[in-house]
Design brief:
The chain is about 35% helix and about 20% strand. It has about 250 residues and is of the alpha/beta class. A hairpin with a 7-residue loop joins strand 7 and strand 8.
Length: about 250
């Protein structure tokens, strides 16, 4: 496969939300060339649900595959599942869509067009609409400058797409981090000088309430360690950022 988009969805007990995710992929004006779903051992019917969708994707001309996650010693589940998919995909551009998130219909076509217009482009980010649990207000995560890395995650990972060659240059996700492997990967992309571009229109929707939101203390520890690992030794911003997040409960 020399072109097109490879889409990876990792999931675990996502039978309630996966139909919305899968339907948003089938509704794309430009379909992915291949779609790989990695299941982390679901026990709620997720695996069987995926099997029911295989004919629909095959009829649409999408190479659709599901597989069980193969756990590696010392590797956290989420980055491990991403890496398992990344070792197999062959498309020009890689998209990661979580099992409870969904796309606007134009996303994959616009993303692929942007990469093809600029052969040097290594990453593309667009705003993500955040959907918290019922009773809380929705908000939008807009991409910002990578210079904010010592303070915060500057781009929404679910709304960021990478050329496959970026992974070949930078490497896959660091399995030591249960929550912040995406933050570490963005740091490494920045340090490698990956060419980046942003779009202004919301194209991805993210359902909040996952592991990061349930494990704030671990998320703070991991982001602090990552920022200290990649930043300048004398830079006080990682410690200040940890303190501010701890004080606000974030």
């Amino acid at each position: 496969m020399n072109g097109g988009i490879s889409l990876i969805t990792i999931c675990w007990n996502a039978a309630k939300t996966l139909p919305r995710t899968l339907a948003s992929v089938l509704a794309q004006d430009t379909l992915p060339a291949e779609y790989l779903l990695v299941d982390g051992g679901s026990q709620d019917g997720t695996w069987e649900l995926l099997g029911q969708w295989i004919p629909r994707f095959q009829e649409a001309g999408v190479e659709f595959r599901r597989e069980r996650q193969v756990r590696q010693p010392g590797e956290a589940g989420i980055p491990g599942a991403w890496n398992q998919g990344l070792r197999q995909v062959r498309g020009e551009v890689v998209a990661l869509l979580n099992g409870d998130d969904w796309y606007e219909p134009w996303v994959l076509g616009r993303v692929l067009e942007a990469f093809r217009q600029d052969p040097a482009l290594g990453a593309l980010s667009l705003p993500v609409r955040m959907h918290p649990p019922e009773g809380r207000r929705e908000w939008t995560f807009h991409p910002s400058s990578l210079a904010q890395l010592p303070w915060r995650m500057p781009v929404p990972h679910p709304g960021t797409f990478f050329r496959r060659s970026t992974y070949e240059k930078v490497g896959f996700y660091d399995g030591r981090y249960r929550i912040a492997a995406d933050y570490d990967f963005i740091w490494r992309c920045c340090q490698a000088g990956i060419s980046w571009r942003t779009l202004e229109t919301v194209g991805v929707h993210m359902q909040l309430g996952g592991l990061a939101n349930a494990s704030r203390a671990l998320a703070r520890r991991e982001t602090y360690r990552i920022a200290r690992r990649h930043g300048a030794f004398w830079d006080p911003r990682p410690a200040l950022a940890w303190l501010l997040r701890a004080m606000s409960g974030r």
